[in-house]
Amino acid sequence: MTTETLPAPAAETKPPLELAPITWVAVFVAVVVCTLKFGFSGDAVVGSIFAAALVVLTATDLERRIIPNRVVLPASAIVLLLNIAVHPSHALEWIVAAAASFAFFLAVALINPKGLGMGDVKLAFLIGAGLGWDVVAALILGTFAAAVYAVILVLTRPGASGKTAFALGPFLAGAAVVVLLLAH
C-alpha cells in the first residue's frame, strides 16, 4: 500500500467570452445613443450599462445559444442598484418590476421547460431592473416580435414546425432597448 495521493481531476473551465468587433461597435453605439438621449446624467450611465449588457447578451445568445450568468447576473445587480441610487423614491418600482418579471418568466419556464430557458428568466429580471414598470411593454413587444418571427420561420422553411427552436433573448433585449429609448 502506498501513501501517494492521486492528482485531482482538472476542473472544467468555461471558454472565455470573446466578443466580435461588431459587438464592440454595437456597445459603443448603445452608449453614445444613451448619452445623447439622456445627456450627461445618472440615467445616461444606467442606460448605457443596461444597453451595453443587452448588446453583449444578444450577441452571445445568437452565437452560443446561451445567456451567460457571468454577464446577466452582475449586470442585473449593477443596473438595479444604480437605478435605486439615481431614483431612490422609485426603489420599490425597480425591485418589484425586476422580481415580477423574473417570477412570471420562471412560472412559464417551469410550465414549459423546453420552451423557455433559465437564461431568459434571468434576462427578464435584468429588463425589469432596467425599465421599471415599462418592463411590461418590453416583454410584450419582445414576445410579439418573437411570435412574428416564429410564424415567418414556419411559413418559409420546409419542415419547420411549432417545435422549431430559436433564441428568444435577442427579441427581449431588442424590445428593451426600444422601450428604454422611447418610453424613458
What does this structure look like?
With 184 residues, the chain is mainly α. It has one domain. It has 7 helices and no strands. It has helices spanning 21-38, 42-64, 69-86, 91-111, 118-131, 135-156, 169-183. Helix 3 (69-86) runs antiparallel to helix 4 and helix 5 packs across helix 6. It is globular.
Ordered list of secondary-structure elements with their pairings:
Layout: H1 21-38, H2 42-64, H3 69-86, H4 91-111, H5 118-131, H6 135-156, H7 169-183
Helix pairs in contact: 1-2, 2-3, 2-7, 3-4, 3-5, 4-5, 5-6, 5-7, 6-7
Largest sheet: none
Strand content: under 5%
* Helix/sheet category: mainly alpha
State the helical fraction: over 70%
Q: How are helices and strands ordered from N to C? A: HHHHHHH
- Could you report the average pLDDT, rounded to the nearest whole number? 89
Which features does this protein show?
mainly alpha; 0% strand
Brief rundown of the structure:
This protein is an all-alpha fold and 184 residues long. The chain has helices spanning 21-38, 42-64, 69-86, 91-111, 118-131, 135-156, 169-183. The chain has one domain.
